[in-house]
Write a structure and sequence with these properties.
This protein is α/β, with parallel strands linked by helices and 299 residues long. Helix content is 36%, strand content 22%. It is built from 10 helices and 12 strands. It has a 5-stranded mixed beta sheet, with helices on both faces. A 5-stranded mixed beta sheet has the order 10-9-8-11-12, with helices on both faces. The protein has a two-stranded antiparallel ribbon with strand order 5-6. The two termini are 18 Å apart.
Length: 299
Amino acid sequence: MKQAYLCLDIGGTFTKYAFFSKSQEWLKKGKFSTSVLSIDAFFAPIIELIEKNQDLYDILAISLSFPGFIDPYTGIAEQAGAILPLHGHNICQELTQRLSITCPIYIENDANCAALAEKSSGEACGLHSFVLITLGTGVGGAIVTKNQVIEGAHFRGGEFGMMVVDFKNHGYTTLHDLASTKALIDSYREKKEIPLATVLSGEMIFEQEDATSQMIIHEWADYVALLIFNLTVSFDPQKILLGGGVSQNEKLLPLIEQSLSKNPHWKDFEVPIATCFYHNDAGLIGAFETIKQRKGEMK
């Protein structure tokens, strides 16, 4: 029986999992649907996964990459993102109570896990200070300064999407509704009068070259650039990383750099911008890094 660490990346639709060896060798990986109907329904497939693999692996520890405001020291989800039944619950305790095995359980915010993954062996490898921005249904991210993730006093650090940046034109509308990939899609759908039944993606919109589409794309990019500028002058990072599905599009970086170049102050604060190295596996690798940080260097 192999010794292994079980890492889980919890998403609103799917939960990804991986069994790692002590040396971070991928032993097994997969995914299953995330249930948000109840606490028991959420944990049921996790328990099933563990029980099915108990004869294969001696599980030394379990680590979860989890959405929301997560206290990694107590295991409490002050706010559990899309996993509504777990708001305010101690996730580590809830899982421990359902396990038939005894092992340490760790948890960390998903964006912080992505940052840990990039720092370990990705685009932030060798850096001590950087900011990671995720562009998806909303806008999130993580801040790393002097090799430490900035969690904040209430574990809300990195909630970039809640910034208000255009009060004159949009009032208290936040960057979730202006700079996310969803915001780009919603704006395109509205201005192009496309029915809700029609499936759209950021990738599809980036391919459109007509004047109206380009106007929509560049307006969206200006808001992303504004976020990057504000974070740069606030934290003076060595690098800004962009994550989320749209970050895999090769047109994104030139588009954002073009928007940044319009800002006369950017030249005084400019730092490198790159897309994240890890995409779908970032949460799993970050969960593994969480175990390393909390346990100390593995033997």
